[in-house]
């Protein structure tokens, strides 16, 4: 299959939009799920990131942006579908909670008051907690149950790379599975993205603005990315999340007749190319010349 077609499939726009595939997969997994409600949540998240919801200030988030959130939802829906094809049952309630948590898992990166913007330096440092607090307000406004909020809060905590789900308050096996799905999808969607390498300097800027000073420069962050993948990401995907990411290959096989995990393939391509250009380049200009894609600004 041509690379262009693979790209369209990967990004969820081969036969429409990512939302179209999310809706299609949700209906296949749980025919009784409220598809209109999923569309409503997608519309609300778009409004949140475009400053037209709850009087948000200007959105200055460029890495954890709307596109990233929607790509995580798409990856989550694909993993749920892969599990479904492997005869692992998830109820319509749990599926909705997983997708809702995926939509809102990074809303804590957004400034929540016009007079705060990013001045308090907390958006990145505690963004999972902030995302949960934002979701709590959203759930109340929409009239959702406290059970939905409680379970979504647990699922969002799975996306915190420093968290240990074994220490979380008791939650059901289905919510554990949803947490593993969304936690895996968050990693896969960003590291497999075709613009991932070009976005690493944006991630560095976000971390600096949020008070995270793990690297002295964007180049240093890029140099440490391969080690981060092999020592942190792979362990989290395989052990913490019980290899739930393997369901992605089942999804592509059943959905597109491709017996491949396009996410892991893309991650390996990104890591290998990053390793190559880091070895070749001694200056930012050299790196910029080899990273030519323009990441979407949405």
Write down the overall mean pLDDT: 88
Distance from N terminus to C terminus (CA atoms, Å) equals 29 Å
Secondary structural class: mainly alpha
Largest sheet: none
The count of strands amounts to 0
Total DSSP helices: 13
Radius of gyration, whole Å: 19 Å
Flag low-confidence runs: 55-59, 114-124
Secondary-structure element string: HHHHHHHHHHHHH
Number of domains: 1
Instruction: Please identify, by name, the CATH architecture.
Output: Orthogonal Bundle
- The CATH superfamily appears as 3'5'-cyclic nucleotide phosphodiesterase, catalytic domain
CATH-defined topology: Catalytic domain of cyclic nucleotide phosphodiesterase 4b2b
Based on Cα principal axes, name the global outline.
globular
β-strand percent reads under 5%
Which CATH C-level class is it? Mainly Alpha
Percent helix among the residues? 55-70%
Notable traits:
mainly alpha; Catalytic domain of cyclic nucleotide phosphodiesterase 4b2b
Overall description:
By secondary structure, this protein is mainly α. The chain has one domain (3-290): Catalytic domain of cyclic nucleotide phosphodiesterase 4b2b (Orthogonal Bundle). Helix content is 63%, strand content 0%. The protein has 13 helices and no strands. The chain has helices spanning 3-10, 18-29, 35-49, 66-85, 92-104, 127-142, 146-157, 173-191, 196-209, 218-240, 247-256, 262-280, 284-290. Helix 4 (66-85) crosses helix 11 (247-256). The longest helix is centred in the C-terminal third of the chain and has 23 residues, at 218-240. The radius of gyration is 19 Å and the shape is globular.
């Amino acid at each position: 299959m041509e690379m262009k077609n693979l790209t369209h499939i990967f990004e969820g726009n081969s036969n429409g939009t990512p939302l179209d595939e999310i809706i299609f997969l949700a209906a296949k997994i749980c025919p009784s799920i409220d598809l209109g409600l999923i569309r409503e949540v997608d519309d609300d998240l778009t409004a949140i990131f475009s400053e037209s919801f709850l009087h948000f200030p200007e959105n200055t988030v460029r890495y954890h942006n709307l596109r990233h959130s929607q790509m995580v939802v798409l990856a989550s829906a694909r993993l749920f579908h892969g599990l479904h094809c492997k005869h692992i049952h998830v109820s319509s309630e749990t599926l909705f909670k997983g997708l809702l948590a995926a939509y809102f898992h990074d809303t804590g990166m957004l400034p929540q008051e016009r007079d705060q913007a990013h001045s308090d330096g907390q958006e990145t440092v505690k963004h999972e907690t902030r995302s949960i607090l934002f979701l709590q307000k959203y759930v109340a406004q929409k009239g959702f149950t406290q059970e939905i909020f409680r379970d979504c809060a647990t699922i969002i905590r799975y996306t915190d790379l420093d968290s240990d789900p074994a220490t979380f308050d008791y939650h059901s096996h289905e919510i554990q599975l949803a947490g593993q799905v969304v936690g895996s999808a968050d990693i896969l969607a960003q590291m497999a993205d075709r613009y991932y390498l070009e976005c690493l300097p944006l991630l560095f800027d976000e971390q600096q603005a949020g008070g995270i000073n793990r690297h002295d420069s964007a180049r240093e962050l890029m140099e440490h990315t391969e080690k981060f993948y092999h020592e942190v990401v792979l362990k989290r995907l395989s052990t913490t999340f019980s290899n739930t990411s393997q369901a992605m290959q089942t999804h592509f096989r059943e959905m597109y007749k491709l017996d491949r995990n396009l996410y892991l393939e893309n991650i390996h391509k990104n890591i290998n190319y990053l390793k190559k250009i880091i070895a070749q380049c001694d200056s930012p200009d050299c790196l910029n010349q080899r990273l030519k894609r323009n990441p979407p600004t949405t």
